[in-house]
């Protein structure tokens, strides 16, 4: 669970011992704290504090990003076909949660107002191109009997369009740089703005991150907050095509059995008004007899942006269907072209869009310590991080409380002076349809990062 609300000392004193705790005892402590908030409508808006032993030594703004597989991001917009570009967006979407699939859920530090984080990714332009015309022609030929279908099983495919593991280079692959900037823009409600930029490929993304969370007694249900309208991806080399990707519900479970896990339920939507193509992804959390499936059933179809009334897979008329998606999102997801139900399509015409198995979260390129500002995440929380790594939890707790009390004092002073907070790198605190715009300073930070420069002189 990630939250951005600052924390007072109300619950901090629950555990401050420097004794190392097992994962099981940590979860029991965490569960004991959460039980105090059963019935609270939004945990993210409640200022409660966790002992430092329960925190991952990672700033929230560093942790809460979507570029786990950067080579899936830079390839968006490559296809000359609108359907191919939408499938590239879907493929990226299915990589954004690698941190939960490959790692374990964690609670990073809550962000403070005005805190910011920046980084680069250096990645390969090595993801397979999705050209749907060629696939459609192959399917048509097989259906006419002119090509003998190869023997296959349900888990394989004649075409694999998954991204390679980061760091896998080929002679043809080229290194591409992505730059990222995020800033905590609001405290009440806790909201951060972010911008991702890859000028070489003409692809960028932006949005507001905000969550609401509720403890049900057995799990924590997390939903996007009112200012979180999703991820907005823009393709400059495709006449500014814009894709809106909305978040489904997530559940942090395993509290009672002592093993945290993330599952997803309900619906996610991806829309592109310019191409008039929409995707509905139905996350099926449980199957028959309550067994966890973690599967996706999805449909890609033509829609009317002026009359966008299709919210379920079964609502989509067969005549509008362009492709279907199916499979476990933590493992391997397949897609088929055309309106046929997935189970009616032969294995040789089921194509791999993502295989999570070999993938891991790509490392970030971070600014050097001496180039970081006082309110830059890694520098701001460094004292807490160093103490946690040294297992000096009482010290970590004390440093954390001092930092947060200093922030509360700044807030009281702003209120006294009648001076509202204004972000440095983003024009919007909240609003603007969920699409924050960069200030001149924000653009300059990203421009310098693209050149591999981390100096903030003349900016802040």
From TrEMBL:
InterPro entries in the record: OSBP_sf (IPR037239), Oxysterol-bd (IPR000648), Oxysterol-bd_CS (IPR018494)
Residue ranges, annotated region (Disordered): 1-24, 146-173
Gene3D superfamilies: 2.40.160.120, 3.30.70.3490
A cellular component annotation (GO) from this entry: membrane
Composition skew (Low complexity), residue ranges: 1-16
Biased composition (Polar residues): 161-171
Any one GO molecular function term: sterol binding
Similarity annotation: Belongs to the OSBP family.
Protein name (database record): Oxysterol-binding protein-like protein-like protein
